[in-house]
Amino acid sequence: MSGALLEVRGLSVVFDGFRALDGVDLTVEQGELRFLIGPNGAGKTTLVDVITGLTRPASGSVRFEGADLVGRKEHEIVRSGVGRTFQTSVVFEELTVVENLDLAASFRRPLWSLARRRRGVSEAVAAAMETTGLDLLADRPAGVLSHGQRQWLEIGMLIAQRPRLLLLDEPVAGMSAEERLRTGELLTEIARDHTVVVIEHDMDFLRRYASQVTVLHEGKVLVEGSVDQVRADPRVQEVYLGRAEERSTGAAAATAGEVK
Ligand SMILES: Nc1ncnc2c1ncn2[C@@H]1O[C@H](COP(=O)(O)OP(=O)(O)OP(=O)(O)O)[C@@H](O)[C@H]1O
Q: What residues does the ABC transporter domain cover (predicted)?
């Protein structure tokens, strides 16, 4: 299928007079794996917050499958097929992996069916376990999972809700090299039958797994394009290197000419 799944137009968000987003346009096509990058404070999380109904924009529209999401409640947006992860964990530590997934999947089920003890796991939960590779850990309490496994569980909990658009906020933050590799593979796999937007800072990760990248800076879209186009763009280099130079006078400046 082709066509725009998400269309953000002229989006502005103002916090106490400060413009966190300033006229952002973003189009994500059906089936895309889009990376959203930008320095700290660029407005990435704010954009996701507006799409998911957590923050009200001062102006602009967010169309998902043609319908405007602005003004809708968070749970209505989830039900309409938009799922997100947060930078902070939302798993229940005492519940097992499969129970967490089941709970996440249950939001579409009527209340009475939640009280009834069901045999086996639903198709959505089984599929989420298989995709994330968590089947072997199904009966472990979430509290004993490693950082990486916990992130995969959160992604699995999203998939179990069968969203058509997934918004992932820094999924590889704090992960080991091996966990990053596995997460990259997982995102690629998920993107085969979902539309995925990933906020990510890690350039190495982007080089490996990103195709289309949108760069935000000071609340505006600075550049959009392939990873190579974005990395080669002098405006992007300036934004990232400018920051690097502020932090370090020596080593970072020596990398001039390339976005790391
Ligand atoms: N609730 C809020 N009230 C006031 N200012 C806010 C609020 N949320 C975000 N901001 C400000 O808006 C700007 C954009 O923040 P946002 O978290 O969207 O940036 P980001 O690109 O996600 O950054 P990071 O990479 O650090 O997570 C920042 O200057 C931030 O301080």
A: 6-243
